[in-house]
Amino acid sequence: MKRLMLAALLTTLSFSAPAAEPVADEAVFVEGARYDAVLRRQEQSWRLLPAEGQDVKLRVAESCHAGSPPPRGLWLLTTGRDGRPTLLAPSATPLPSGHPGEVVLVPCGQPLPTGTPALAVPETLVAWLAENSGAVYVAD
Q: What is the spatial distance between Cα 67 and Cα 82, in angstroms, rounded to a whole number?
């Protein structure tokens, strides 16, 4: 009986149409427990959640708006192949079709790399993230 129900469920799931834009499940994200910084894409603002002390809110200057923010969801901060800080999407982060799952963080005023998504951020923010953060939550 269980096999029959499982087979029916799998059959039903295989016929459902994929969503046009994947959506991150915000219910699984616990502020300060699973991520140390929040990027609000539409506002181009950051909220830093240090382990000790007050939260810090940063608004990126208009002159630094370059590149494209990552899709919504949880991103891990790593060092890319070129040595730059890079946001990497874990498998649980839904990505639009064709997105490589990496976004390079580039200090404001420096040229953005070609061929890979990149986002300009203040140099002090890059340094803070590198020292204090393992994960960033990207919200709308």
A: 18
The DSSP letter of residue 70 is: P
Residue 77, helix vs strand vs coil? strand
pLDDT tens digits, 23-66: 444 544 444 456 889 999 988 899 998 877 788 898 889 899 99
Provide, for the chain, the percentages of residues in helix, strand and coil under a 3-state DSSP scheme, each rounded to the nearest 5.
Answer: 20, 30, 50
Predicted TM-score (pTM) of the model is 0.73
Which are the contacts of 117, defined by CB distance < 8 A and separation ≥ 6? 67, 68, 70, 99, 100, 102, 103, 104
- Cβ atoms within 10 A of the Cβ of 16, count? 7
Report CA-CA distances (Å) from 114 to 84, 103, 124.
14, 12, 23
Q: Where are the beta strands (DSSP E) in the chain?
A: 37-40, 45-48, 56-59, 73-79, 85-88, 102-107, 118-121, 135-139
99's tokens? 């997105």
